[in-house]
Amino acid sequence: MMYSSRRKPVLYFKEERRLLSGRCTVYKLFGLCMLLLLASLLWLQLSCSADLSSPPHRDRAAPREQAAPQPCPPDPQAEEDPSWGPHKLALVVPFRERFEELLVFVPFMHAFLNKKKIRHKILIINQVDHYRFNRASLINVGYLESGNDTDYLAMHDVDLLPLNDALDYGFPEDGPFHVASPELHPLYHYKTYVGGILLLTKKHYHMCNGMSNRFWGWGREDDEFYRRLRKAELQLYRPSGITTGYKTFLHLHDPAWRKRDQKRVASQKQEQFKVDPEGGLTNLRYAVESRQELSISGAPCTVISTKLECDQNQTPWCLLG
């Protein structure tokens, strides 16, 4: 009878079981045991002879040193390739205690931008003081700490990942480019929304004096920045031709696990709707506690741990209670 190769292992085990079937006599079992014993003694004799014939360990040649691990291949964006273009993006991520999202975000965005041949560096602006979270101030810090090797920035939430390769992260020469537009963002659909992911040149960001530092807690800083864009007479652009709708982005935030700080303290309810005509880059106060270069699953990023300062006479709502 012929069997397919997939069944050969099963046939092999069946043949082994036949050797120890009930038809074996006591004498056959005794003979088999003696053969195994003699084979073991012979193997032991040969092993000892080989050890005695070999020179002592100290006379042997020194073991070859273990080869040093090869360095990782160079990042494609660091190579001189004109197809990557002359511009470099500072991907600024305001951050506090969102490590689960960060472990996903950095490798994903690094691969996404490399695929699109966007020169970039990822800056995680980590707030380490005891004040309430201030997204706008952290983005201001990212702008100031991004270095002279970048010429435009992305204000990018850590919990928002682009799923459509057609999304443009290139240099926004004509004006600010809102990647996470209301027609595409999974949550926010009002016309003046400019949050989530916004690209703009450093020149245009400076023209707006950055973002207001008065927004402690969650929300409203993007709406105030929209007014700054209008005041600076900058034309806002949004994606066109994207057909994936509200499935264009993956939103990693779990509201049941991470509650947003939406409390409004003291006069914050009234102040949150006002325009801040003077605040921004010019009155930002902060200190960099540390600057660490990290690699997450092979993707490089820089974590800038930052302590913001708060003038409690101006914004007493920077503290809760």
TrEMBL record:
Pathway membership: Protein modification; protein glycosylation
Region (Disordered): 55-83
Pfam name, any one: Glyco_transf_7N
Compartment(s) where it occurs, according to its Swiss-Prot or TrEMBL record: Golgi apparatus membrane
Residues in Galactosyltransferase C-terminal domain copies: 176-251
Cytoplasm listed as a keyword: no
GO biological process, alphabetically ordered: carbohydrate metabolic process; glycosaminoglycan biosynthetic process; proteoglycan biosynthetic process
A GO cellular-component term linked to this record: Golgi cisterna membrane
CDD domains: b4GalT
Top-level taxonomic group: Eukaryota
E.C. no: 2.4.1.-
Function: Required for the biosynthesis of the tetrasaccharide linkage region of proteoglycans, especially for small proteoglycans in skin fibroblasts. Responsible for the synthesis of complex-type N-linked oligosaccharides in many glycoproteins as well as the carbohydrate moieties of glycolipids.
Entry protein name: Beta-1,4-galactosyltransferase
UniProt source species: Oryzias melastigma
